[in-house]
Amino acid sequence: MSSRDKTVVAFDLYGTLLSTESIAKELASHFGNDRAQAIATLWRRYQLEYTWRLNSMNLYKPFNDITLTSLQHALAESKESLSEHDIKQLMRAYDSLAIFPDVKPALQALADNDAIDAYVFSNGTDAMVGSSVRTSPDLSPHASVFKDLITVEPVRAFKPDPRVYRHLVEQVGKSSARKEDVASVWLVSGNSWDVVGARAVGLHAAWVDRAGNGWSERLGVLASGGPTVIVKGVEEVVGAIEKWIGESGENQERGVSAGLNQAPAAMGPG
Question: Is 12 a catalytic residue?
Answer without folding.
Answer: yes
